[in-house]
Write a structure and sequence with these properties.
Elements (H helix, E strand, L loop, with lengths): L1 H24 L19 E9 L11 E10 L5 E10 L6 E8 L6
Antiparallel strand pairs: 1-2, 2-3, 3-4
């Protein structure tokens, strides 16, 4: 009986340590920019623009910008390819390119 109690105690300690470790290692969930179901048409070109700009009476918060420009092409009726250029502008700075993204949307049959 004593051996069973010792075993049970060890299992409880291991399970507790695993639970604490998993809780500490979990990452927060963030919202994404957009979720959509692609509508792909073979031979179709697309041009998209998304942008934001701050307007505030306080000069320290005014004129911050983010821009996203993309061009896409429907390769088949189920698969397309898109290239994005990302631009941003901090307060009192010039507009600069901050990144490039490449997407391959797929529309299931």
């Amino acid at each position: 009986m004593r051996q069973f109690q010792s075993y049970t105690l060890k299992v409880a300690v291991v399970v507790s340590l695993l639970a604490v470790t998993m809780t500490m290692a979990s990452a927060p969930a963030y919202a994404v920019d957009k979720i959509y179901s692609p509508n792909v048409t073979k031979g179709e070109w697309e041009l998209e623009y998304f942008g934001t700009r701050t307007f505030d009476g306080n000069h320290d918060k005014n004129d911050e910008q983010e821009h996203e420009v993309s061009i896409g092409y429907g390769v088949t009726n189920h698969w397309a390819t898109e290239l994005y250029g990302l631009f941003d502008k901090q307060i009192d700075e010039s507009l600069r390119m901050s990144g490039v993204q490449f997407e391959k949307p797929f529309q299931p049959v």
